[in-house]
Design a protein that fits this description.
300 residues; alpha/beta; 6-stranded parallel β-sheet; 10 helices
């Protein structure tokens, strides 16, 4: 099968399309003929050597496609079913991928729309769970218009929370459409948030980094009420929890998101698609960081 791989760390030019042996599913897993695979910031961080030290490495943690092989004990889907999910092997940007966690694709979504979901909704749900966001909470989300941020906005609103979200002014109407109250980030942020919530907020989620943790701690009344998915060094410096997948992933959301999508309460736009062969360009666009919505590789 064709798959994305790199054998040295560096810029997008180190990415190659190579022939690799076809993978096969283990117990409880399924293999799909990949139709689309999501691109995430973790991909280019991995390519730069900021995550895993070993070489060579394959790419991709989320995909959507058609089941073509079942692992032992799998009875909830059949060959030919459309599914989306997560690849623990980190090898989803390929013609074939083994999914360790999966769910049927919601009827209204195409493959690209489904491939955009898994990482964003799992990360957002895990962070909301770890923060304890519930009905009646007032939650501030820094970086609310990005893929994880916008997922967190909608999932928190679905729980009955009030959400205040930071974004550039160009994205304020978008945040309103998701159910959030927008504020501009940058100097004076605390004052703008307090204009909406004079007593501060109950909880804060940093989905963008940008060195904002001290302001979030002040607004939320202490580091124990703040979580980040984007600032590992800042979390350590300020005593804020950094949400990690190895703390327990929120995989249940894969099966639950379809209900919200089909009822019109959740959407995650695909900003742009690329053929698998143009993965290097997808990385360049992802690293530039100015897209609203997900980037997705399409496999013919």
């Amino acid at each position: 099968m064709k798959a994305v791989r790199f054998s040295q760390f560096g810029g997008p030019e180190v990415l190659e399309i190579v022939d690799l042996p076809d993978p096969h599913p283990g117990p409880g897993q399924v293999r799909i003929a990949v139709r689309a695979a999501g691109v995430n910031p973790s991909d280019w961080k991995k390519r730069k050597g900021l995550m895993d030290p070993e070489l060579p490495q394959t790419m991709g943690y989320e995909a959507a496609g058609v089941v073509d092989e079942l692992g032992e004990g799998v009875a909830d889907v059949a060959v030919g079913d459309r599914v989306f999910g997560l690849s623990d092997a980190g090898a989803a940007q390929a013609e074939l991928a083994v999914l360790s966690s999966y769910a049927p694709i919601p009827a209204s979504l195409d493959f690209a729309g489904a491939a955009a979901l898994p990482s964003a909704i799992e990360t957002a749900t895990r962070a909301l769970d770890q923060l304890g966001v519930r009905s009646g909470s007032t939650l501030l989300i820094n970086g609310a218009s990005g893929s994880v941020g916008s997922a967190a906005v909608q999932l928190a609103v679905a729980r009955g929370a009030r959400v205040i979200g930071t974004a550039s002014p160009a994205n304020h109407d978008y945040l309103r459409s998701l159910g959030a109250e927008p504020v501009a980030y940058g100097e004076g942020l605390a004052g703008r948030v307090r204009a909406l919530a004079p007593g501060g907020v109950d909880l804060a989620l940093d989905a963008a980094g940008s060195g904002i943790l001290p302001e979030l701690i002040a607004l939320a009344g202490g580091p124990e009420h703040v979580m980040t998915i984007a600032d590992f060094a800042g979390a350590r410096e300020h005593g804020v929890r950094f949400s990690r997948g190895d703390d327990g992933r929120a995989l249940y959301v894969l099966a639950e998101i379809g209900r919200l999508i089909e009822s019109g309460r959740f959407s995650l736009p695909v900003a742009r698609t690329f053929p698998l062969a143009e993965v290097a360009e997808a990385h360049r666009v992802s690293e530039d960081g100015h897209m609203r919505g997900k980037l997705v590789l399409v496999v013919d």
